[in-house]
Queue: 2 jobs
Job 1
Amino acid sequence: MDEIQSLMQGFAIALTLKNVALMFTGIILGVIIGVLPGLGGANGVAILLPLTFSMAQSPGGTTSAIILLSCIYWGALFGGAITSILFNIPGEPWSVATTFDGYPLAQKGRAGAALAAAFTSSFVGALVAVIVITFLSPIVANFALEFGPPEFFAVYLLTFCAFVGMSKEPPFKTLATMMLGFALASVGTDPVTGTLRLTFGSTHLLTGFDFLIAVIGLFGIGEILLTLEEGLAFKGAQAKMNLKVVLETWKELPKYWLTSIRSSVVGCFMGIVPGGATPASFMSYGVARRFSKDGDKFGTGMVEGVVAPETAAHAAGTAALLPMLTLGVPGSPTAAVLLGGLLIWGLQPGPLLFVEQKDFVWGLIASMYLGNIVGLIVVLTCVPLFAAILRVPFSVIAPIIMVICAIGAYTVHNSIFDVWMMLVFGVVGYVFKKLQYPLAPLVLAIVLGDRAESSFRQSMLVAQGDMTVFFSNALVGSLTGLALFLLFWPLLALLIARFRGR
Amino acid sequence: MKANSIQFLCAAVMAAAPSLVYAQSWEPTKTVEFIIPAGTGGGADQMARAAQAIVAKHGLMKQSMVVVNKAGGAGAEGFLDVKGAHGDPHKIIITLSNLFTTPLATGVPFNWRDLTPVKMLALDQFVLWTNSAKPHKSAKEYIAAAKAAGGKFKMAGTGSKQEDQIITAAIEQQTGTKFIYVPFRGGGDVAVQLVGNHADSTVNNPIEAVAHWRGGKLKPLCVFDPKRMPYKAKVTDTMSWADIPTCKEGGLDVDYLMLRGIFMPGGVTPAQVNYYVELFRKIQATPEWKDLMERGAFNQTSLEGKEYADWVAREEARHVSLMKAAKFIAGQ
């Protein structure tokens, strides 16, 4: 029980007045960063990184510095859900899946319940991941080493397949929008040959289509256009405004224990691998929709549909810190900035960090427990406040949303071209909704398309074009097999049903 | 007469003073944007952020400095931004080898001559690493094994047609060996691929691989600097950076160092350039900077003015010939 002793020591380090104050500061900053689309956790942490430099010089200061930065990260994870639920605008990539059921819930007047469920399940996911880090880090850390290009591709394939196979939309519409997403994801630099492609000589297209701009446009602007057409009213206006809603939601949540466990497992796995929080949230939503009793009603405003992606996103976001600390490989863009921070402070992430910097590592792990508790308290007490935003008349809030969206889109690359792109995506989003094409596969493909492509082409380079590499060992074989099984599950289910019918 | 001449002198000094002041001192009048033509977490990013933190900590600037990553198109986004800001003294950029490789490999229209060279901060080292479980003890043995394997050895590296692949191509040209070059997104990923035995070797920068070296997972075979690294403090139980032989000593006659230097947009005045030269001299004098240099085992060559511009021109010519030989140039 070495771990418990070390953890207790960690708590002693993390539980000073200064550090707890830093936790609150970090969480509140993080929530604000998470709420603003475009700013993002990675940017937020990067902006504040230099502030921590002098902090890290004092004895024990590195722990305080990482507590501040990691709490910003937790805060951003929590905050991303808020705009997803209230306005259908994901503040962060991993909150896209939260919009699927969170926003319909808000429209039904249950914004408070959706927020409470999102925050609580975020907390649960993070807690599970921290426990895994605490007790299993030596075993789990080396698991990521098993992952070469074929394994990574299998994981991305699994995410796509889980989503397509589990989708309730017509499969061809899903495939069509997904392919459009892949096409958009391939604009910019070719990851293997390094040449530019599909830029048509325009320097604006060098950077490709950033996921955030697409999402802000497709969801945010598209939604506003739809609301304009339907008569300038927010449907969520009757949202409850007291804290009782939190308790009521808590009573409902234990029903979804199985979904929570599944999502936590998916999240921890994707964080450690490190695949990241975004695929984790999509995969977990897809799996929950398939295996839930109420799977058919997903997308119409189910609390369970909020629980699944939020638990997984937070579990993955937390677990992503493990490969960062033990291998120096960041599991998310934000973890990449934190990694840069560690190096600037003079800490070398790697296998020896746990041995040489015991105080730092265990202080950080203890702060993960505490930071998430602090975060939960902060965001839950604000639920009525957030829900009250929906009472503001549409004619007032819509222009504000438009401005925030435009600022968000501009912030991504400091380019006005992106704001125009956002508007174009807004119109696309509106047309898609009118024609009943699903937006989620498009977004998923933009987010993961280039990474999946890189892994696939790296695998092909390594294997010299031999496709059997995706079945070359037990790990990659089972991942690929599972992916194909999930993809063809609807067909198989149909066949089985027919067979039984006879 | 005497009084007159003094008066005259005073008048002359006073008349000359404003232009003198103008020529010698200029200071930013608003926030300075520090552009990184690479992603967050990489070597250039770390150095720029460390510099920014040092400026903030020691109060070296009256105005503040913000760091902006513009990594799109292998850094072309950042370079085009600075090229477009002709005459803007509130913008500086830190460059890596993509200053040369990106326009050559992609055909994006920019050249270092569109920018104003300010100061070289350091040169980044490249080391040939393999997994410690592998039997090869020297660069020579490794190359021989790669040759014997008939082009099946995998070299993992950061990016495509950039420094890592150029070094790989130089090794191939020098020795007649063939490697399968597999590009990854970041140096950290590359190091872990090697630890996990998904690749046979890498040419990681010291800072990217040092943790795994200390952890006993990777071993350095040689450094691509003509001289050994000067850092004698023990990194592992038995070795320091200075103990790593140069590749030339090991029978692999390839050398490569990567620029970490500062540029400004074109069309700025000498006084403005001078301000940043002075600023970075002050940064380099701080203990934090020296610490960073030692941790990353940097080559601390630091040039300014004409020497720097000449160095950049030579290096450009070298990249053109290396990339031409490897057929990496766009439209070639």
Note: Strands of chain A lie at 188-189, 196-197.
Job 2
Amino acid sequence: MTIYLLRRLFLLGTVLLGLSIFAFSLGYLFPGDPLQNFSGLRYLDDSTREQLTLAYRLDGSYLQQYLAFIQRLWHGDWGLSLASQQPLLTEIRQVLPATLELTSYALLVSFFVGIPLGILAAIKPDGVIGKAISAIAITGYSLPIFWWGLLLIMVFAVGLGWFPSGGRLGVLYEIPPQTGFMLVDILLSDVSYRQAALQDALRHLLLPTLALATFPTTVMIRFVRDAMLDVWEQSYIKTAKAKGLSRLQVLYRHGLRNALLPVIRQIGLQFSTLITLAMLTEVIFSWPGIGRWLIDSIYQRNFPAIQAGLMIISVLVITVNMLTEILHTFFNPLARKR
Amino acid sequence: MKYLSCLSLLCVALLGGCSRDQGPLREGGLVYCAEGSPEHFNPQRVTSGTTIDIISQQLYDRLLDIDPQSGDLLPALASSWQRSADGRTYEFQLRPDVQFHQTHYFTPSRPLQAADVVFTFNRILQPDHPFHAVGGAVYPYFQSVDWTALVTEVRATGPLTVQFQLSRPDSSFLSNLATDFAAILSAEYAGQLLASGRPAQIDSLPVGTGPFFFREYQKDVLVRFYRHANYWRGEAAMAQLVFDIVPNNARRMAKLLTHECDIIAYPRLAELALITERPDVRVQESTSMNVGFWAFNTRKAPFDNVKVRQALSLAINQRAILQAVYFNQATAARSVLPPTSWAFNPQIPLHEYNPQRARELLAEAGYGNGFNMNIWAMPVQRLYNPNALKMAELLQADLAQIGVNASIVSYEWNAFRRRLSQGEHDSVLIGWAADNADPDNFFRPLLSCAAADSGSNRALWCDPVFDRMINQALLTSDQQQRRSYYLAAQQYLHNELPLVAMAHSQRIQALNSQVEGVSINPYGGIALFQARRVQP
């Protein structure tokens, strides 16, 4: 197991190294002045230019420049956003939690809805319920999210008026940002309208979570169903049945545990898709997360922000992938041996 | 299945918990959905209508105000004023006990004094003033009215009296003081900022005397103001005012329908029919002080020939343009001055559409076989011309009827304006929005010889007769006499036609039916001081 972990960590290190080299080279690959791309300063006078050239080692070799770049990253100096002239790390700290919040709620929904429905569909795959669930799953799977999101807004916000059409919280509620996670911030705040704000935040959450959760939930349903059907054919299930265990016991003790193992791995694989979909959801629902921020940055040709955003998102995806992989191996002795 | 029912229970709880309009804050708060972010929080430094709408009337007061109905000047921070016999000295008596905002970054120790007014205007006037160039500040409105050449000195003659010295009599001077740009700042706040070495903060964390004070600004997200408790006109009805920044037109409309916005700026004309049927929202409109026009480059042949200009004017169908481009949300223009102006000349006939006569005039001018020309269509959407490209296409079709072959030209907005100033165009579709109620604001920047040199005269038209008329109008303060000069000037324009005025568009906003006390000010930014929520 230790060797396995070391191997994984080594792989993670290599990928991060490659990623940082790529991010560094973007400073040169983007159009414009590399000094501006690295620092994000809109106006550079001669003295700051000189200072920065020295600090960034732009007069030295590429290797020296890269090392200086890594050092800056490590010390939290990620440069400024060209558009707002605010430190990028501060901006990312404001927008990333919003994305994580939305994504994690969508993931939770996909577990709590997807897994039970998948099992239900697998119990009698040819029954009415099984067929219906499969039909719903395939429909949800094929819905393009931008269309689905807009449809939800049209029906439930504009048409019926049950939910707000976008944003994280009604603008009249003033909640001081502390963690960046809205629900947590509301609970931490000491405002008189905490209860109402919480309710309002939940109402804002519902539609985007629903839109974003649709894809992973349907994937989960199909995956769990197939895994269950697969496990059901295994000989140890037949043995368990022959032992005289009840259907539920077989399902719980032998079926589920084995069928759900690959699900852990599935989360890691789904995560990058989920982040991409989250970006689209953020744009549709005016959710102030990192996806919308990154897309705005692309429109504004805000190169330092694109560079930093790409780095953060890739590190996030790679780390989650790696973690789920490790977890999967941890729970599955078979995979460890391989 | 258990989870599904949990989820639906949650739905019910969320929906049932509060019906959507009864949030506790909603009673005392108003949400205005704006089309863009403010550039700064100092009206002196901007001309963009978006910024002015958000900051000017909410945070600040001016020495004088304009009555939105009559266009007359009203006392504001100045309770009275005198003009000297030679018209070159103005003295203002300031209102006592006007309090500045108390915010988390500034606590005022004294009410408004003459020093504040002197500071406000010296910042613009004196190039060596410590705040003149702070943050790269420029003062575009004051430059456009040539303020530094007009005002020679501003000084306090008492704790509550201020004197302005002018280099020449100018009857539009008071109107300029009443524009949204002439907001009064706090000298005490500026002094504190200078002492602490943060002068640039004066334009990002504002302090004024207006009905609301600044609380927070999240770029591209929202601007939050709270009610100024010691406002000299009395407290505003709304405790909180939020400007939600929603650049997307469709999304702004959706937010109005879901009641997330109480007021939205600039609904799309094509969508107005959709909301007029709903009882919960209503539409307000008012003819703005603006004009969309088609200007000919009078320095180029054949447009230097008045007969050609008249022929081109007769060839176009103004009514069709009003319908297709403005969706009939505009008043047909007779001359550059809108009918709401006191100097409007009702004698000028409505635009005539007569292609037959146009062909005859062209033949008389020696262009019986027509000619080629270009129409420059501005690439941006403005109130005075919501769709210049479409207008250009309509003109193109009309001109083809009289044998004139027109091509349409457009560039990116900055390049477009630069090339226009260089006179590269044959004709251009553009317009003008006035900043104050004075008729001079239409004639001088658009058609004077000085404007032809500085570039804002898109017809590059310079006529000494016309210039004399508008100059004489400024030298007198007798309104009847001024009016007669302007009537004559409009008649002269009608004969010479350096430009064809198309339309005075209406400014439109849509608002929740529960909101009262909001109206469109034809002379400037929206004022939300009197906005209040009533139960229908």
Note: Chain A touches chain B at residues 84, 109, 112-113, 116, 120, 153, 157-158, 161-167, 170-174, 193, 196, 199-200, 202-203, 206, 286, 288, 296 (CB under 8 Å).
